[in-house]
Design a protein that fits this description.
about 475 residues; alpha+beta; PmbA/TldD fold; 7-stranded antiparallel β-sheet; 7-stranded mixed β-sheet; 11 helices; globular
């Protein structure tokens, strides 16, 4: 694997040095080599299985020029390259990419420089070989068998004959990634990855309902995989028996799973350098992100005769979270990542995102993160669920606007607690705006690993608009 990476990168480097491309000031090259197994099940029967090996590269070219007023600008363009391309084809792609970079115009910024150790080393074949050796040691066949066993275990022991896994897609892979640039930077990683998508089914006579779910992890976590299918098998049976969502007034909504993560993730996203630079986000360093328009910290409120204090958000950008395949010690520019405090008790402490936008803003570079964590809340999940509430668990298509924080979706399955009993309900929809409702936020002490975060298991919002079924 390392030989392929090295040979391909050398081909590209040689072409970049050709005299026909003299105006390239800098370049960045990302190469990814992946070995992936795929299986497609109907019920528990394997319908299709295949093995895929891929090698591809993304080249980013930078062309500098000086404007008539003396301002230095930098053009940027990116293209995808494959080893099956001939040298003539690769050169033609590079020429087109250079032409595109010439007409691009951005404020000038510098590339990430290698640290002292990298700068003093030879071209990093040894580093590529080491990462490739680690990637080759990942046994994707064993991962596939272990994941399938864990996912199907709850269906085999299901307490109701009415439910089953209708279909399941399973992917396991070993990914070797390398990033190099014209300044001598070399970053490598090797990652195991398992991802699955599945549909659970419940039927009674001619009445059939289905629920979909998906998850990914960096190693085989049997408990997490089994819990995913067990939860959906339980929920799809409840969906079969659910009643229409009735009229509810001033009822708190408790989010969990991916939806809770997406709501927390809005705060993570809105503090990115690129959004602040483009003025799509007002949340600069020092902003009270959970304050009123004057920037005051939120006050306590009353609910049912009790004083309720909102939880104040403390959020970290994380380079690595155990079990998540997006974990990486460097970002897409090769900038080294370290755990970074982004929001502390509702106040923005740092902006993360592409380093070029940090430079343009004149703020410290922290890099671009894929993962985040949220500190625990003030109440246990049990205490949060002890008051009347609506807890939706399956939506048709839950979405949060990355700019406005508006959210909404149709409800496929929710649990309604009226203070005495809990009922499975379906239908209807909900909507709201995080900037308007963030002063009501409370979340659980308990945290779980989700798709891109370590964040509280439950998130409660008050004032969410709930539309009953049939309206």
């Amino acid at each position: 694997m390392s030989t392929l990476l090295f040979q391909f990168s050398e081909r590209i480097r040689s072409l970049l040095a050709a005299a026909v491309l003299p105006d390239i000031a800098d370049w960045k090259l990302e190469i990814e080599h992946e070995r992936k197994l795929e299986r497609y099940y109907v019920a528990e029967a394997v319908e299709q299985a295949r093995s895929v090996v891929s090698l591809s590269a993304r080249i980013t070219l930078y062309v500098d020029r000086t404007e008539t007023d003396g301002t230095r600008v930098r053009g940027i363009a990116t293209a995808t390259l494959y080893p099956a391309h001939s040298d003539e084809e690769l050169l033609a792609i590079l020429q087109r990419t250079t032409a595109a970079a010439r007409i691009s115009k951005n404020p000038w910024f510098d590339l990430v420089e290698p640290d002292a150790r990298q700068a003093s080393s030879a071209y990093p074949l040894e580093q590529l070989e080491r990462a490739a050796s680690e990637a080759a040691a990942i046994n994707v066949d064993n991962m596939m068998d272990a994941a399938a066993s864990a996912l199907f275990a709850p269906a085999r022991s299901a307490s109701s004959p009415l439910v089953r896994i209708n279909s399941l897609e399973l992917f396991t892979s070993s990914v070797h990634h390398a990033l190099l640039n014209s300044r001598g930077l070399c970053c490598t990683s090797c990652t195991p990855k398992c991802s699955t998508e599945f549909v659970t089914e419940a039927r009674h006579g001619s009445n059939i309902v289905e629920l979909f779910d998906a998850l990914s992890c960096s190693a085989i976590d049997r408990e997490r995989l089994s819990k995913a299918t067990a939860t959906r098998l339980s929920q799809v049976l409840d969906r079969l028996q659910a009643r229409p969502l009735p009229h509810v007034v001033q009822l708190p909504v408790i989010f969990s799973g991916r939806e809770a993560e997406d709501l927390f993730g809005w705060f993570f996203g809105i503090t990115r350098t690129n959004l602040v630079y483009s003025k799509a986000s007002p949340y600069v360093e020092g902003t009270h992100i959970q304050g009123d328009r004057q920037g005051n910290i939120l006050n306590s409120r009353m609910q049912a005769g009790r004083e309720m204090k909102p939880d104040l958000l403390t959020l970290y950008a994380e380079p690595v979270l155990a079990g998540l395949p997006q974990s990486r010690s460097y970002d897409s520019d090769g900038f080294p990542l370290g755990r970074t405090l982004v929001i502390e008790k509702g106040v923005v402490k740092a902006l993360t995102g592409p380093v070029r936008h940090a430079d343009w803003l004149g703020v410290p570079r922290h890099g671009e993160f894929q993962l985040f964590s949220v500190e625990p809340g003030s109440a246990t999940a049990k205490a949060m669920c002890s008051v009347p509430h609506l807890r939706p668990v399956v939506f048709s298509d839950f979405s949060v606007s990355p700019l406005t924080g508006d959210f909404g979706a149709e409800i496929r399955l929710a649990y309604l607690y009226d203070g005495t009993d809990t009922f499975a309900v379906t239908g209807g929809s909900l909507s709201g705006s995080l900037p308007q409702l963030q002063h009501t936020m409370r979340w659980s002490m308990e945290r779980t690993i989700k798709s891109r975060s370590l964040s509280p298991e439950l998130l409660m919002l008050e004032g969410v608009s709930i539309t009953p079924a049939g309206e």
